[in-house]
Design brief:
about 240 residues; alpha/beta; two-stranded antiparallel sheet
């Protein structure tokens, strides 16, 4: 059986032998296992990135179905203070984003360790996956700056992560590219999203292209979702993403 197409949040509960649910503490129950039981280097963390209006959530959900991996919209992991700020039309600053980005990284790691739980005796309640299914997770996140992507790769949390498990979680980025004109047209048509259309220029100014970074595949927002998925799947199969 494959993973569900959309998995809204990382698993948070384990089940004891009596069938009772208990919270999984990433910093305690996992750490108590031997280090060699927690190698996650065969998993993958796929970040769908780009400015607002590129269709990150749509592609993320489609990739979830194609790759049989859980998907989370990174916007759902923002603290309420960030959501309120964006709803007022105020751009976030780096001190607003830092804890959000760290939460995304930790959520990805926690979800993947939960997927590996049955294999490694953690008795974690998580979606059932095929024995040959590569564990992983897909999260949509703007990831506009190189420094933000460093956090998502775990580079700023590497020492803390290394004490919890062996191996390094491979991280790849799907960069959704598009012109300002197409993005603005999409933005003006969106309903119920807290991002204001006039903030697009601010995001485009902030964007630091990841084209020259490792572990990145670019897709055009003018492609169909099916073509975008094919491009990403092909890059993964061919090893062209070179996850870092």
């Amino acid at each position: 059986m494959s993973l569900p197409s959309v998995y809204p949040e990382a698993p948070k509960y384990s089940e004891d032998r009596g069938g009772n649910h208990a919270a999984v503490d990433f910093d305690s129950s996992v750490e108590s296992r031997p280090r060699f039981d927690r190698n996650i280097s065969d998993a993958i963390f796929l970040v769908v990135m780009g400015v607002s209006g590129t269709g990150k959530s749509t592609l993320g959900a489609a990739l979830s179905k194609a790759l049989r991996l859980p998907f989370i919209d990174g916007d759902d992991l923002h603290p309420q203070s960030n959501v309120d700020k964006m709803a007022r039309g105020e751009p976030l600053i780096d001190t607003d984003r830092q804890p959000w980005l760290e939460t995304i990284r930790r959520t990805a790691v926690s979800s993947i360790l939960s997927q590996l739980g049955d294999d490694y005796g953690l008795h974690v309640s998580s979606p059932v996956r095929d024995e040959d299914q590569r564990p992983g997770i897909i999260i949509a996140c703007s990831a506009l700056k190189g420094s933000y992507r460093s956090v998502l790769r775990g580079e700023t949390l590497l020492e803390a992560e290394a004490s919890k498990y062996s191996g390094k979680l491979p991280t790849c980025f799907v960069y959704m590219k598009g012109s300002r004109e197409v993005l603005m047209d999409r933005m003006m048509k969106r309903q119920g999203h807290f991002m204001k259309a006039e903030m697009l220029d601010s995001q485009l100014k902030t964007l630091e292209s990841p084209d020259n970074e490792g572990g990145v595949v670019a897709v055009s927002i003018e492609w169909s979702t099916e073509d975008q998925v094919r491009g990403v799947v092909r890059a993964l199969e061919d090893g062209g993403l070179g996850a870092v």
